[in-house]
Task: structure prediction
Amino acid sequence: MIFRNAIIFLTRRCPLGCNSCNVGATASPGADLSLDQLDRFFARQSRYSLTEHLIWTGGEPFESVERLEYGIKAAARLGLQSEVLTSGSWYRVNPGYLEWMKGMGDFSLRISLDGEHQSRVPLGEIFDLIGAGLGLGLAINFTLRDIPGQDFDIWKVKSMILQKFPGLKDSSRRFHVIPHFYTRRQGKGPVQVVGQRWRRPCDQIGRDLIIGNDGRVYPCCGIFQHPEYRRLSLGAIEDLQLTELLELLRKRPDLDRLQSLGPAAELERLGLRVDELDWPVIQNPCDICFALWNRRSPGDICTAGPD
Ligand code: SF4
Ligand code: SF4
Result:
């Protein structure tokens, strides 16, 4: 099996602490991925056959700048390209980070944009960061998230970026849009999901190698918002051989169903409706998984994960 990227969560700390954070990052102290665990990953990485990038993220990866530097340099020594997924919140205080990092090896920036980020880090600051990064010859990409109820128009922001930086070519890799869906209720009827997008299979399982800041491997990167995400871990980096990892993915019928059919189909297989789910907000496919993972009775998904 070939993984597209390895996505490495260096930390779950982030000064912004957004309510809508999809990894539940906060400004509170917490353990970062250790250098020892990074070494163990790199000792095995050739077996994972990565085809694209090592993606360094968090939390805010620049909160763990020592590990970020260590990781980018180690990746570069092995001929691997790094991408750093960041909110850009550090740039105003530490603009010199960019130039300093440029000397470490081949890396690109992926800036995460959504309404909650931009209420704390204005777009003007992000534009300064983009301009400085492009000036240093860095590739800059974006992940855009349109959160229902927040004043943020992803298409408008994208067009503002392209107007301000006409040299940036538009592509799905450059502007990655995270999906969500809307729900509606008619009168006193059940809550219904609008549209068909939520019915898609989940293409994230097994696509990338996901390493949490606890040094454990996870089946997808959408799960860190769930308080019991450790239950879904496949094992620690140091314990897992690639063949074992594949076997673990295969042995989990719940993950197989999510991959081939998607969370909506899993919901229907269990005879449940969206309005019966116990999860605060259902606005993207991961929220359905979280609600399903909360259930523990026989026949539900993810009853077999490690404690
Ligand atoms: S900036 Fe990103 S990582 Fe930080 S709290 Fe907000 S959503 Fe989470
Ligand atoms: S939809 Fe479910 S399986 Fe897919 S990324 Fe989200 S939490 Fe993971």
